Amino acid sequence: MTVGNRFAIDANVLVYAIDVDAGAKRRLAESLLIDAARVDAWLTVQSLAEFFHAVTRKRIATIENATRYVQTWQIVFNVTAADVQSIDDAMAAVRDHSLSFWDAMQWATARQAGCTCLITEDMQHGQRIGGVELINPFLP
């Protein structure tokens, strides 16, 4: 996988990294996060919130363990949040690229942070939108 100098990681990667039932996806996600901690990798507040919601709702992690993961990742990675421009950009991406709104928010927030790549399972692999390439690390 080739990524630009700065990239963002979507919530699905975070979920797989701790899901004991995720098999090969877990191993790949864990490895990706270990490597990402050494470079210019970013998380969005949205990805951390989606992670917390998913793993507690699906009972992959307790509230306490999910909280510890989120707090640790806030220390290890750069974290950025959406702003008004992100919302405007996301709405345009929904219109122009047929993204779901929340995927578009993830993309727009990563783009606002200067990321050239978004690591995600949820969008079309290899698509480039507004200078951000979408990479699905789980493809064969």
Tell me what you see in this structure.
With 140 residues, the chain is an alpha/beta fold. It has helices at 11-18, 24-36, 45-57, 63-76, 84-97, 101-112; strands at 6-9, 40-44, 78-80, 117-119, 128-129, 132-135. The chain has a 6-stranded mixed beta sheet, sandwiched between helices. Strand 5 and strand 6 (132-135) form a beta hairpin. 37% of the residues are buried. The mean pLDDT is 95.
Question: Could you provide a short overview of the structure?
Answer:
The chain is α/β, with parallel strands linked by helices and 140 residues long. The protein has one domain (6-135): Rossmann fold, CATH 3.40.50. It has helices at residues 11-18, 24-36, 45-57, 63-76, 84-97, 101-112, and strands at 6-9, 40-44, 78-80, 117-119, 128-129, 132-135.
Number of strands: 6
Task: Label the overall shape.
Answer: globular
Order of strands, widest sheet: 3-2-1-4-6-5
The CATH topology is given as Rossmann fold
Q: Please tally the helical runs, counting DSSP H or I stretches of 4 or more residues.
A: 6
Low-confidence runs of at least 5 consecutive residues = none
Please identify the top-level CATH class. Answer: Alpha Beta
Radius of gyration: 14 Å
Task: Provide keyphrases for this structure.
140 residues; alpha/beta; Rossmann fold; six-stranded mixed sheet; 6 strands; 53% helix; globular
